[in-house]
Specification:
Number of helices: 20
Shape: flat
Helix content: 40-55%
Strand order of the largest sheet: 7-6-11-10-9-8
Mean pLDDT: 80
Radius of gyration: 36 Å
Number of strands: 18
Strand content: 15-25%
Low-confidence stretches: 586-605
Distance between the termini: 123 Å
Largest sheet: 6 strands, antiparallel
């Protein structure tokens, strides 16, 4: 009896302790949950505000571009049937290109003369919108963005207006307008399932929301003067407008007529005075969500604990014999948990592979049209003479090239992660390979006034089984980074080989005197999308994928990559490729001749005596014969002219044994083939410097 009393007392004390502990834990978790809800509400409201600002500004450049088209200007001035048809066709193209609701052209008196909806029942043609603020603002030379309900179509939309000029310094002769539907923005609002999103004007009128029954309502009670002001503008129809019934109860809180309490976050939209994003979270729903989450996470724990206490009491009293069976049950449960964990791990890995395969497929699909966009944009730039239109083409080219670089990196990384990339081993002459790499980067390095040192061991076999494409990709990443992050000093490439019978261990080292990498970042710099802390993306660019791809490619080729670096003193990347197969000699293999000097910023390759004798002839041809070709290539930027100049200067260099001119021609041909506009411009800028060096040699010789 005494034992029963002790066990019963211990059980009660244990239950009481658990209950008190559970209550305290519940209170702590509840407070933390509410704080997290507040934080998430702020983040969500800010995200929606940013997305709204982006949505409201997306057609500004488009309407500006269309307002500058000659046919649009002619339609306002001449108003002839043929010219108006052209303006209507341009409006149709505008609507299709930018997925707009309506694109239309308004004359100076406010009358619509051309529109993409001219054949619809609610056509804008012939309608006068001089009373609209977006017209009044644009006709006075100020572009406008205006949110309102259409007086003709009775549809909500965002109106983007821009003045149309006949002369740059003259007064506007009309207004070009793009009306975009508001529904895509509301679709973005619908992604926020936990809260209610409201876009309101300065008077509290709900213009867009993920709660459709509150559309065209007043969020708060408005004064008669405010309602009169809304009515006079006809911005949101003729009314009357109902109220939502919401009342502010305190800072950051509101309640409706049904007694529901809401957490309220109000954020002003940049550049749209008075317009706000209102984000409401139902506190009752949050509380129910918390209670359900707490019950799901903690309730079963309490039940199990209570059950354990009861079982323990019985166990201590008379069920000691069942210890083994309970242990077996626990072991079975643990094994089952392990199996479930393994299945979950397999499912996660399968999902990751599926993600990588999807990225690889999507990158392929995106890269194909991007190549066409870049190519035809460059071709189109040779025919366009208008400076404004040229600036649009340049913006397309710049953004397209950045996107293409990112797509290529993502494609490579996703192919590696999805297991789709295969290493293609073929006989490669390493001497020729590293000589070509040297020539490709020599001009860029020389332009930055850096010394370029190459140290290729003589005992490297003439033919190795390597994937030449991937080796080039690795070296382009490493040497490109060295050039990018080095402002003074040198860049050095070293290649050594340890021959083991029919195989060898190949070591490739890229060393620079650049900005270096701190010790704590050297372990994470090879992760995808990781860059050095404090690195200026505006200055250096990049996506953080190059080293991640390089490391994976090296590992796929049975190798390792080692990094040694000190901030401010430079970096050294060593690639160690093990058991590289030595193959038979390649047909037509020509091992590069020994490089007599390092190509740097302050030294020029020595000229043979026969070339020195012809310096006057060389200088004359460069200043006369090639000056026209160079000027044509620079001024037109047409790939055909640049390619012709590259071929001519390469042949010229071969005729007179001028290695730097040969390298310039080869690099230009490579950059033209890759549509690499930046590298083409950099190479062309080096040509006058090479001529100046020839002149200096001529003067020194004389």
């Amino acid at each position: 009896m005494k034992l029963r009393t002790i066990l019963f007392t211990l059980s009660l004390l244990t239950l009481l302790s658990l209950s008190i502990g559970g209550y305290l834990y519940y209170s702590y978790i509840k407070e933390s949950f509410l704080k997290e809800t507040l934080r998430q509400a702020d983040l969500q409201a800010s995200r929606i505000r940013n997305r709204t600002s982006s949505f409201l500004s997306q057609n500004q450049k488009a309407v500006k571009a269309f307002s500058g088209i000659g046919q649009i200007q002619a339609a306002i001035v001449r108003k002839e049937e043929a010219v108006l048809q052209q303006a209507n066709a341009i409006s149709d193209n505008c609507k299709t290109s930018f997925d707009a609701d309506v694109c239309y052209l308004i004359s100076k008196d406010g009358t619509t003369i051309a529109s993409s909806n001219r054949n619809d029942k609610d056509s804008f043609v012939g309608k006068n919108y001089a009373f609209r603020p977006y017209f009044q603002q644009a006709i006075h030379g100020i572009p406008a963005i205006y949110m309102a309900m259409g007086v003709t179509s009775l549809k909500r939309g965002v109106y983007y207006s821009h003045p149309v000029y006949i002369e740059k310094q003259g007064l506007p002769i009309g207004v070009m307008v793009i009306k975009a539907a508001i529904e895509p923005l509301e679709e973005e609002f619908s992604h926020s399932r936990e809260g209610i999103v409201l876009l309101t004007d300065p008077h509290g009128f709900i213009f867009a929301s993920n709660r459709q029954d509150w559309l065209f309502h007043l969020l708060w009670e408005a004064t008669p003067d405010e309602i009169s002001a809304i009515t006079q503008t006809r911005q949101f129809g003729n009314g009357p407008w109902k109220r939502t019934g919401l009342q502010k109860t305190a800072d950051s809180y509101a309640a409706d007529n049904a007694g529901n309490k809401y957490l309220l976050r109000e954020i002003n939209i940049d550049n749209y005075p008075g317009w706000k994003i209102n984000y409401l979270v139902n506190i009752t729903v949050v509380a129910e969500s918390f209670f359900g989450t707490f019950t799901n996470r903690i309730g079963w724990v309490l039940i199990v604990l209570y059950a354990i206490i009861g079982i323990s009491v019985l166990f201590l009293y008379k069920f000691a014999s069942r210890d083994i069976s309970r242990r077996k049950i626990a072991e079975d449960s643990l094994q089952k948990s392990r199996e479930e964990l393994r299945h979950a791990k397999d499912a996660a890995e399968a999902a990751n592979r599926a993600k990588s395969e999807f990225l690889a497929n999507m990158s392929h699909e995106i890269r194909t049209p991007m190549n066409a966009i870049l190519g035809f944009t460059e071709l189109l730039s040779s025919y366009v003479t208008d400076e404004q239109q040229k600036s649009y083409l340049e913006a397309i080219q710049s953004g397209g090239k950045s996107l293409m670089t990112l797509i290529n990196d993502i494609l490579d990384l996703s192919e590696i992660e999805a297991g789709k990339m295969e290493i293609q081993y073929k006989p490669v002459n390493p001497h020729n390979l590293f000589e070509e790499i040297r020539q490709i980067f020599a001009l860029r390095i020389s332009e930055k006034k850096l010394d370029f040192i190459t140290d290729i061991a003589d005992d490297i076999p003439e033919s190795l089984l390597l994937d030449e494409v991937r080796i080039r990709q690795i070296l382009f990443n490493l040497i490109g980074n060295a050039v990018k992050f080095t402002e003074s000093g040198y860049i050095k490439i070293s290649v050594k080989c340890k021959v083991l019978s029919v195989k060898c261990d190949l070591t490739i080292t890229v060393e620079d005197t650049g900005i270096g990498i701190s010790g704590e970042l050297q372990s994470v710099i090879f992760e995808a999308f990781r860059q050095q802390d404090g690195q200026s993306t505006r200055k250096y660019g990049g996506t953080g994928l190059g080293l991640a791809i390089t490391k994976r490619l090296v590992e796929m080729m049975n190798g390792d990559i080692v990094l040694k670096s000190e901030p401010g003193r430079g970096s050294m990347f060593a690639i160690l490729l093990y058991d590289v197969q030595i193959s038979d000699k390649i047909k037509d293999n020509q091992v590069c001749e020994e490089i007599s000097g390092n190509v740097g910023a302050n030294n020029y390759s020595p000229l043979p005596p026969e070339t020195l004798e012809k310096l006057p002839e060389i200088t004359g041809r460069l200043e006369n014969e090639f000056n026209c070709l160079f000027t044509q290539a620079c001024e037109t930027g047409v790939f055909g002219h640049i390619e012709n100049f590259a071929n001519q200067i390469k042949a010229f260099g071969e005729q007179y044994s001028l290695e730097n001119f040969i390298a310039l021609g080869k690099n230009l041909l490579i950059h033209v083939g890759n549509f690499d506009i930046d590298s083409i411009e950099a190479a062309l800028k080096l040509y006058p410097k090479l001529i100046e060096e020839i002149r200096n040699i001529k003067q020194g010789d004389s």
